[in-house]
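Sync notes, pocket subgroup
Present: LS, DG
LS reminded everyone that the earlier model was apo-only. Rerun requested with adenosine-3',5'-cyclic-monophosphate included. Inputs:
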Amino acid sequence: MKTNRTFTMIKPDAVANGHIGAILDHITKAGFKIVALKYTALSAQKAGEFYAVHSERGFYADLVSFMSSGPIVAAILEKDNAIADFRTLIGATDPSKADKGTIRNLFAKSIEANAVHGSDSDENAEIEGSFFFSAFEKF
Ligand code: CMP
């Protein structure tokens, strides 16, 4: 079902480098409404659960370690065509391949420390958003 919602995290690298405000500014100026927002941190166990789909990949252990290395910002965003438009706004997973002006092009350093996460489908946006937020925290 199309929900016009996506889920994002501002990852530990972008938080540590002081980019929370600039990234949220890019997101809202691109027309996304913030439906839920939280400054928090993932334990290694929670990061492992969140990225369980990648558990067979060679980068999984490093990804879990990185994603639990410091605070993150979690958010649910709403806009027509949210999934595709947000993936366009953030750019390719590997920032060296991300288009100029995209969030990863501007703020990311590597494929692992790539500044932001964006859901890849409506179904995963719902699962990922509900991983962080209860119904009482979504507006
Ligand atoms: P994200 O969109 O959060 O989803 C999975 C993450 O795994 C991805 O962003 C990257 O940060 C991370 N990752 C680390 N190494 C790789 C890799 N070689 N290929 C794809 N993703 C990787």
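DG: The chain has a mean pLDDT of 97.
LS: The longest helix spans residues 122-132.
Action: DG to write up.
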